[in-house]
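TICKET #2291
ISSUE: user wants both folds in one file
ATTACHMENT 1:
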Amino acid sequence: MLLVSPLAEGPFGALPGWLWLAVGLLALAAWPRRPLRRQAMLALLTGFILILAGWATLQPSNQRDWQADVGELRWVMVNGGIVTLYNIRDANYRSETDYDVRWLTLGHDLRGLDTVDLAAVYWAGPAIAHVMLSFGFTDGQHLAISIEARKESR
């Protein structure tokens, strides 16, 4: 599974990926003809390329010390029209760090799928939202899914 974060973790900490790209593009766009400025721009561009090269060597891994509420990977098994979902989080959150979590295995017959709803919960302005899909079944059960970042334990 590939998770993309607006704050990509690079070799020098979390910095926005668009910031690195902007610095590189500015260095190329502002390439001057004067020798002293050209040397300064060359130094900036070299630094940018070194940081980008270090960032590109990072490898994704599921073998980390994840927070308990994101510690299990979800997976699905399909057998005909029956879908079995493993490690579905059922949590009771009292705060961001105080919660009870349990992991469920759920089975659903896709022939009983009745509704599919798309919801977007906006936060920090209109450009950032948590998007979720909710599946409703004829037996009254619902299943909501979304993609989220897996946070490491501190």
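ATTACHMENT 2:
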Amino acid sequence: MQTLVRLLAGPHEVVGVVTQPDRRRGRGRKASPSPVAECAAAAEVPILRPERVGDPESVEALRALDADLGVVVAFGQFLPKTVRELPRLGYLVNGHASILPRHRGAAPIAHAILAGESKTGVSVMRVEREMDAGPVCHVVETPIGPDENAGELEDRLAAVAADAIATGLTEIEAGRAEWTEQNASAATIAPKLEPADGRLDFRLPADELALRVRGLTPRPGTYFVLDEERIRVVRATSRSEASADPPGRVCVRDEELRIATARGSLVPLVLQKPGGRPTPVDAFRRGRPIPDGTQLELPQ
């Protein structure tokens, strides 16, 4: 969305926007356009909403736009060669949210945090058949805050990507873009994270679990199980203290809730019960006690 807004501001002309078909949303489940479609409509830019962008009628509609170049941002459909090579310059570009070849795939932001990395960025690359493997012409780096979660970093990177793509287009138009092939041997994969990945296993070290909380917040989220109820951990930190308690044992010390792990303690700061709102842990425990000495269930 931010990339479209940035490109609409110029200097490059946006001749058309391709987005997903209208979907049923909200309580009334009425079909409504995507935010991208609404933005394009407000700017009076032609909109295509194909179920499959590679269908012949979709390809012909794209050809009729007579674009010099295509920009792809979180589109969510496979782009066949007929679409990738359709623009006059013969390719599409994408702003991938990592410093390629690190973290190719659907969840680069989460995996950068999970890996404990101190920086990430946006790589402007050509779209090729192999996922996120195309040559790169422009990279913008940014630090990852020590407490920043995936949602917060994603919001920041959206603005970084918008400017990076705009700069990349200017360099391409001026003939100054230098395309660098990726080092495939240094590539890492960042697959989509599923809800099952959010179950916290306290047999892992506390610092690794704290990274997991940051990397999977807000989606798909992390949780532990207490009395058959999933308690979501929205924010947490870790303590490097030694403990004789088994993994998953709760210790309340100085009003701080600590959970023993394989090494150190995980300290939840914000918790959320099913159907509830994220709540600071002290207020949470007043409504849902977690007594000292409680043994939390471990994954099978």
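RESOLUTION: both attachments delivered.
EXTRA DETAIL ON ATTACHMENT 2: The radius of gyration is 23 Å.
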